[in-house]
Design brief:
heterodimer, A: alpha+beta, 13 helices, 9 strands, about 60% helix, about 15% strand, B: mainly alpha, three-stranded antiparallel sheet, about 65% helix, about 5% strand, coiled coil (chain B)
């Protein structure tokens, strides 16, 4: 959930986020973009207070209470329904969770608990084949919101988790809530890398971006009306040990649909909900389009880096040349410094742009989650269709047996003709078997129909939620991108204006 | 040599009429200076002054005034090089350029001339000027052909770049107080094609040219013994300058290359947003907006690269060539001195006709003197030109870059403005402190 706020800046032209929040708690989308009199501030609604201070005078520029705003935004725009009573995170069965598709006001975990991924550290240990390995662990910190708003400042509870544990959590959520577009994790390996960016998973910049991405994942999950109520999630955040045993005990791995099953369903389903088919097409497009965009962006970044860095050579040569010249010396020397500054400025700018790329990447990965939801629908629909056609065929068989008329060709019928019909006893046995099967079949069909309908209902709601979230987030991202470009242009103007002054002095 | 010139070449001088040149031209009290111009100049070779051309100090004063930078009101000759045309003959294809001259100078019969010249003709003129004034700094010509890759003599950009350089070349000569008085220059500007061909055939023959070259080579092998300190200083400067300007040339070309590659990628970037917008509803407009911004920035980038290529690259390249010219000039000066020294030594050691040799030595000594003065005078002049040219080229580049960023800034700010009036953010607008 993001918003854009307009704040009028007083004399100082820098802003940093004040000490009530540690910088690590500012997730991916939070940026303070500075210049002149207007800042656009992006931040994530988290139920905490954000104080903005002038970096020179340390005066508070604005005090924004996010909880209040959250309520206002909820009033203004959210699809609301009456909150489902009961305590959200006490023992609810997985099945109940599945059926709990209503959006609940004020019930997500995030409103009760402050969550952050504060740090990352390297650890060594033995892996499954007893070989030494180095891996990174991330510190998850949690604090109850009540305590904070009451003015206490309790130390957060914390535990360490590896990326692979996040993966397990996500897989669990995918299986348990197939009708939800589950937020993606940050990429496992660095992709869309341009030459300066490291593809190494151990690279500190990559680790830092991953930390931010993991925090974002947790915030998204913990603010989702359905997912946030999950017990396993709560465990993940609060119990360091035994979590893995607990999650495996749920048996979620067994419940996962096999790929072959899913794929086969895609091809053979007859009447999928058209909306889901369209959504699936959209997810394919989203994936390929964002992927293409990210690829080209990386190449553009690479080239831009080259342009700026070559200017650094001007700095060196001007400096050397200025030693030769008496008249032009001063002008050249200072121009050289500006060229150095120009070359150096690109590092920060492209670092910032990486955050933009990460925002797009999130939706690249979201596309897959979206597709998974559509595929699951096709699977449930297919199972329903299969069950229905099974039922029909059983009923037909019963009719044939009962009336003795052979409607359809069957080997049985042929052998009967060839070798004589079966005995009345045999026929009776067959009939009663069929009756049983038909009764069961009807039950199955009813079950599957309900399952299908519920799935469609739940999934459609979440897909709508996802769509709105996506539109909002991407809109913010694009605005952020424009702000970045503006900042870059302003820096360019400044450097070259300074250089111009120096050249004048030549 | 006992006499020293009062006004030593110093890079700190910024006066409009530098003491060095004026010391030679205006200081009428020193007969030696006057002598320089009325003397029989067969030593310096050839056709520097036509007998009919006034060589009085008065006209020198007028010409001297061209030292003042950026003065066009006192200019009395305007030359343009334009209109390249291709000529095809049985043997070859070549380009000629129109050279248009407008002048009020009295040594020209008409006030306007229009002739066509080819690169070879320019080369000839340069050669003649260098022969006549071996220690004056003649502005370089563009190179014969692009060194790397194909010989692109007929490529549009190449021709345009060359045309501009040729234009500059002629104007620099026209601005030069001594070179612009050259008869060869006059003929170059005014003679029709066949006249020029005839004229070219005159002058020192092949053999005498060979003699000159042999002497020069011999002298350069021998080397100069007592080079005055100031010329050593100039030589050191030229060495360093040559390195620096060479580096700048390379860096700038590299920047152009990188910028062009950046532009290529940028051109593919915008369309990815447009493509995406086709699949979106709410976001479509915004995505198209961003695509539009990127496209406009592409145009600006293209312009900026073009400006760099047109303005900074040629100037730096010119001065790379200038550095080579300077080295050659210094070498020639050294050779003149070496020749004198050799003969001088011979006087002491060899048993020859001492009177004849003495006379020759006197002439050589004067020649050295004259060469040194010419070079010193031109040196200051050259330095000022160099400063002016490079300063203005860099200034222009910086200005263009500021302009480029300002234009891109406007593009993105317009986009941002269009986004901030979106209604979905209205609810929060009120929450300003």
């Amino acid at each position: 959930m993001l918003s854009v706020y307009q704040v009028y800046l007083l004399p100082g032209n820098s802003v940093y986020c004040g000490s009530t929040i540690s910088p690590s708690q500012i997730p991916l989308y939070t940026k303070c973009i500075l210049r002149l009199k207007v800042i656009l501030i992006f931040y994530s609604l988290q139920g905490r207070t954000l104080i903005l201070k002038d970096i020179k005078s340390h005066e508070s520029l604005s005090l924004v209470c996010i909880t209040q705003l959250e309520r206002r935004m909820a009033d203004a725009g959210n699809k609301e329904s009456a909150p489902i009573g009961g305590d959200e995170f006490t023992n609810t069965e997985l099945e109940n969770n599945k059926n709990n598709t209503m959006v609940e006001e004020g019930s997500t975990l995030l409103r009760r608990m402050e969550i952050s991924v504060a740090e990352a550290e390297k650890r060594t240990g033995k892996n499954t084949v007893n070989m030494q390995e180095i891996f990174t662990v991330y510190l998850i910190e949690t604090r109850p919101i009540d305590a904070i708003t009451e003015g206490h400042n309790p130390a957060p509870d914390s535990l360490w988790r590896r990326y692979s544990e996040f993966e397990i959590l996500r897989n669990y959520l995918l299986v348990t809530y197939p009708f939800i577009v589950v937020p993606p994790l940050p990429e496992k390996r660095a992709e869309f890398v341009w030459h300066k960016l490291s593809a190494d998973n151990m690279d500190p910049d990559f680790v830092e971006r991953r930390r931010v991405g993991l925090e974002n994942f947790l915030l998204r999950v913990a603010s989702h009306s359905v997912l946030s109520n999950d017990k396993i999630l709560y465990h993940f955040l609060t119990e360091e040990h035994r979590w893995k045993e607990v999650v495996y005990e749920t048996g979620f791995q067994a419940k996962a649909d096999s790929r072959i099953k899913a794929l086969s369903a895609t091809f053979r389903v007859k009447n999928p909900d058209k909306r889901f088919t369209e959504m699936k097409h959209y997810s394919d497009e989203l994936q390929s389009l964002t992927s293409q965009l990210l690829r080209v962006r990386a190449r553009v970044a690479d080239r831009l880096y080259g342009v700026y860095k070559v200017h650094g050579n001007y700095g060196r040569v001007f400096s050397e040349w200025s030693a030769l010249e008496k008249e032009m010396g001063d002008g050249l020397q200072s121009a050289g410094h500006h060229m150095d500054a120009y070359a150096a400025s690109v590092d920060d700018m492209l670092e910032e742009e990486e955050h933009y790329a990460d925002q797009l990447k999130e939706y690249l990965f979201y596309a897959e989650a979206l597709r998974a939801v559509c595929r699951k629908h096709e699977l449930t629909q297919y199972e329903l269709e299969t069950a229905s056609s099974d039922l029909i065929s059983k009923k037909q068989q019963r009719e044939e047996l009962a009336t003795g008329m052979v409607r359809t060709f069957s080997f049985k019928g042929m052998t009967n003709k060839l070798f004589g019909q079966e005995t009345p006893e045999q026929r009776e046995a067959k009939l009663s078997l069929l009756e049983e099967q038909i009764v069961q079949g009807e039950e199955t069909v009813t079950e599957k129909t309900v399952e299908c309908e519920e799935y469609v209902k739940g999934a459609w709601v979440d897909m709508q939620r996802f769509k709105e979230q996506k539109d909002r987030d991407l809109r913010e991202a694009l605005i952020g991108y424009a702000v970045m470009q503006i900042s870059m242009c302003k820096k360019g103007i400044q450097v070259w204006t300074n250089a111009k002054e120096c050249f004048h002095k030549m | 040599m006992s006499r020293t010139i009062d006004a030593v070449v110093s890079p700190t001088q910024t006066n409009t009429i530098p003491a060095d040149i004026s010391g030679q031209m205006l200081d009428l009290d020193e007969d030696d200076d006057l002598e320089v111009f009325s003397k029989d100049l067969t030593l310096a070779d050839g056709n520097m002054f036509n007998a009919s051309m006034p060589t009085s100090p008065g006209s020198m004063v007028n010409q001297c005034k061209f030292e003042e930078d950026e003065e066009s009101d006192s200019k009395d000759i305007f030359i343009t090089v334009d209109n390249p045309e291709s000529h095809v003959t049985a043997i070859e294809t070549f380009i000629t350029y129109r050279v248009l001259t407008k002048t009020t100078r009295s040594e020209f019969d008409n006030s306007e001339y229009e002739v066509r010249r080819r690169y070879q003709d320019f080369l000839w003129l340069k050669g003649k000027l260098e022969d006549a004034h071996s220690t004056l700094i003649v502005h370089p010509l563009p190179e014969k052909f692009v060194v790397k890759g194909m010989v692109e003599r007929f490529n549009g950009d190449f021709i345009e770049t060359r045309r501009k350089a040729l234009h500059k070349f002629l104007n620099r000569i026209a601005d030069h107080p001594i070179l612009s008085c050259s008869e060869d220059f006059k003929v170059f500007l005014s003679a029709q094609a066949w006249e020029l061909t005839t004229y070219k055939k005159q002058g020192p023959g092949f053999l005498s040219r060979m003699g000159e070259t042999v002497r020069a080579v011999a002298n350069s092998v021998r080397g100069v013994k007592n080079r005055p300190e100031e010329f050593t200083a100039i030589q050191e400067y030229v060495e360093d300058f040559s390195n620096k300007i060479g580096s700048l040339d390379k860096v700038t070309q590299r920047i152009v290359k990188e910028q062009k590659e950046y532009l290529e990628e940028l051109k593919e970037y915008g369309p990815t947003y447009t493509l995406w917008s086709g699949s979106e509803e709410e976001l479509a407009e915004q995505l198209k907006g961003v695509a539009g911004c990127i496209e406009r920035c592409c145009k600006e980038t293209e312009e900026q690269v073009g400006h760099l290529s047109d303005t900074l690259v040629p100037v730096l390249h010119e001065y790379v060539l200038c550095a080579e010219t300077l080295k050659a000039v210094l070498r020639r000066r050294d050779n003149i001195q070496a020749e004198f020294e050799a003969k001088n030594e011979a006087l002491a050691t060899k048993k020859v006709d001492r009177d004849a040799l003495k006379e020759e030595i006197d002439k050589l000594e004067d020649r050295v003197e004259w060469a040194n003065n010419a070079l010193k005078g031109d040196w200051g002049r050259w330095q000022r030109s160099m400063r002016g040219d490079l300063k203005s080229a860099f200034l222009s580049t910086a200005e263009k870059n500021v302009d480029y960023y300002e234009k891109c800034l406007a593009v993105w700010e317009t986009f941002l403005l269009s986004q901030r009036t979106e209604p979905s953010e209205e609810t929060d607008r009120d929450n300003t402190p």
